[in-house]
């Protein structure tokens, strides 16, 4: 039997292959009635050879059950990283319309932990069948996961993984490895004893996301392993008052005899690029590296303000996360626990090709 025919295999076909009657096959498949051991073995051998599965889709459609999913992700504006995640989720939901799968969004402020706590406070009583969670606030996500475990509600993580939880799956980058890659690229550009600016963008919460923490840990671990002997400069950038940050960056650049590296561990390397542009550095001494293919970052890359972007396909994370939850609820299909996204290294020369590739 050809491979493409297996999805349409009928009981009568199995009966012919096994040399038994269709009624005998039916009794084996539905575990009813007596079947001799000899005939059972023949049928089971054929089932194994053709990788037979019952028609789960037809079975579900006949049940008419409705599944309500909840998506907990940050609010976003046009061109943001999370807009791409939202697009992937919506694509998955559009493909699942026939299966009566719906989604409700609970959006929080990614710069404010309290916002996350407020939107998740009353969600347990809303009857969700599955939850997709962006794991920016690790401790709060862990608390939420415990509550979901008690209610036996399946949940999937995206953006960054939190080990030791009972999540059905994780879809996203390996944050630690992502940081290691950034460090390797940086050292190749600036050398082993240069200055590195690690910029933090000021926000209301004064904290860093789980993703950012993992990236910075990977970055520092790699530099430690290669015995990096340069100097680190941790600076805070206030988007509403750039003067102090510009002064500090200028001092670092002028005091360094070689190139200076610069990195931001979230998706806002464009903020640091904007400040470096204001310095009007004719020698292009500051080599910037950042994360995520959002519009402002891509523009900075095209203007040669940023040398590298590391991207992790956010749309695919949202898409795969919803599909995994749905397949589990609909067909009891268990996904792999860890599903790492490719880490794409983007430069000016390939960014347009990358932009053309959309989920």
TrEMBL record:
One term of GO molecular function: DNA-binding transcription factor activity
UniProt xrefs under InterPro entries: HTH_LacI, Lambda_DNA-bd_dom_sf, Peripla_BP_I, SBP_2_dom
Domain HTH lacI-type intervals: 9-63
UniProt superkingdom: Bacteria
Family matches, as Pfam families: LacI, Peripla_BP_4
Keywords in alphabetical order: DNA-binding, Transcription, Transcription regulation
Protein name, UniProt field: LacI family DNA-binding transcriptional regulator
CDD domains noted in UniProt: HTH_LacI, PBP1_sugar_binding
Organism: Dysgonomonas capnocytophagoides
Presence of the UniProt keyword Transcription in the record: yes
PANTHER family (alphabetical): LACI-FAMILY TRANSCRIPTION REGULATOR, LACI-RELATED TRANSCRIPTIONAL REPRESSOR
């Amino acid at each position: 039997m050809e491979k493409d025919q297996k999805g349409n295999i009928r009981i009568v076909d199995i009966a012919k292959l096994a040399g038994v009657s269709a009624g005998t096959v039916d009794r084996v498949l539905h575990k009813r009635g007596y079947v001799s051991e000899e005939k059972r073995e023949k049928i089971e051998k054929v089932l194994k050879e053709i990788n037979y599965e019952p028609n789960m889709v037809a079975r579900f459609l006949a049940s008419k059950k409705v599944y309500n999913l909840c998506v907990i992700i940050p609010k976003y504006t046009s061109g943001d990283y999370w807009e791409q995640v939202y697009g992937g989720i919506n694509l998955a939901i559009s493909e699942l319309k026939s299966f009566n799968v719906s989604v409700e969004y609970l959006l929080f402020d990614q710069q404010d932990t309290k916002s996350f706590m407020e939107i998740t406070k009353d969600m347990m009583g809303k009857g969700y069948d599955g939850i997709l969670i962006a794991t920016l606030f690790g401790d709060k996500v862990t608390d939420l996961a415990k509550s979901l475990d008690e209610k036996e509600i399946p949940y999937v993580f995206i953006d960054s993984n939190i080990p030791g939880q009972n999540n059905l799956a994780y879809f996203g980058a390996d944050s630690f490895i992502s940081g290691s890659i950034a460090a390797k690229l940086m050292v190749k550009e600036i050398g082993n004893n240069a200055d590195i600016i690690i910029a933090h963008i000021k926000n209301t919460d004064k904290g860093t996301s789980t993703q950012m923490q993992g990236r910075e840990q990977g970055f520092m671990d790699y530099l430690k392993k290669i015995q990096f002997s340069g100097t680190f400069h941790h600076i805070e950038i206030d988007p509403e008052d750039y003067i102090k940050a510009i002064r500090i960056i200028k001092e670092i650049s002028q005091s360094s005899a070689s190139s200076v590296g610069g990195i931001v561990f979230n998706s806002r390397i464009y903020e640091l690029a904007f400040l470096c542009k204001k310095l009007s550095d004719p020698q292009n001494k500051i080599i910037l590296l950042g994360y995520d293919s959002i519009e402002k970052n891509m523009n900075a890359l095209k203007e040669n303000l940023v040398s590298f972007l590391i991207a992790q396909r956010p749309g695919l994370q949202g898409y795969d996360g919803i599909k995994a939850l749905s397949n589990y609820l609909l067909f009891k299909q268990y996904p792999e626990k860890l599903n790492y996204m490719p880490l794409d290294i983007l430069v000016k020369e390939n960014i347009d090709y990358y932009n053309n590739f959309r989920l």
